[in-house]
Amino acid sequence: MHPQLFTIGPFTIYTYGLMTALGFVSAMLVGSWKAKKNGLDPDQVYNIVLVALIGGYAGSKLLFYITEIKSIIQNPKMLLDIGNGFVVYGGLISGSGSVYLYCKKKNLSFIKYADLLFPSVAMAQGIGRIGCHLAGCCYGKTTTLAIGIVFPQGSFAPPGIPLLPTQLISTLGDLAIAAILHTIYAKRTYYGQTTTFYLILYGVGRFAIEFLRDDPRGSVSFLTTSQFISIFFIVAGIAMLAMNKTLKKQMPAYPPQKLDQR
Asked: How far apart are CA 195 and CA 198, in angstroms?
């Protein structure tokens, strides 16, 4: 595990930040390639990913501050650490909201671009979790299983004891979701289909992995903050799924050659 990749003078390249950046770049490139194949504007994909990055960063930091408010009151200097402390759900909600406003301003179809990009979002999340593993954050509970990972001194995780590799489990889960969503997108029959299954699959996966994690996190009653938000993601996805028949009647199937950017 290597929290820091290398240092040149006053500049340090952190593996978490690097993998997160690689995830966003990968999402941008794959999304642009798919946009060309499906009649959407590749240039808008770059703009949307940039908007999602900025909005997502702000939202993930804000939700982290909310969940850690007690610690921040005790140590206000935590507010100055802009490189650590993020909550994925905050980024997803804020990033999606920012993209929605951007699409509305540019007269673009939010749901078409959401369907296009959510498979890439899941892929980016999987790559980003590798960064979590290298940094030692989002670590799992202690274990006697052979899959246990021992982190060194300097990691966010407790050093010297075997822990469940929740980061790598999340990586495999996110990449599996990405593969499923890519398949669904290729065979889609109505607007919002890919988005629907992202909400359900990611919500279920995130709810489950929280039982294995042991890092400090916020809570809502007996649930972690992420489990609480996962319930809303799952319910929203199921509600959209229940409306499939109505959606199919109101919205025509859209084969790739008939798509447009609006």
From this structure: 5
Tokens of 99: 């993209």
> Strand 223-224 to strand 149-150: parallel, antiparallel, or no bridges (unpaired)?
unpaired
Its pTM surpasses 0.85: yes
Mapped onto helix, strand or coil, the DSSP state of residue 179 is: helix
Range list of β-strands (E), the chain: 4-8, 11-14, 149-150, 162-163, 219-220, 223-224
Encode pLDDT of 79-114 as tens digits.
766 666 678 899 999 999 999 999 999 999 999 999
- Sequence-distant (6+) residues with CB within 8 A of 93 are 59, 63, 229
Q: For 105-250, list the strands marked E by DSSP.
A: 149-150, 162-163, 219-220, 223-224
R_g over Cα of the chain: 19
Count, residues in the chain: 262
Planar angle of CA 29, 91, 202, nearest 5 degrees: 80
User: In this structure, what token pair is assigned to residue 188?
Assistant: 């889609």
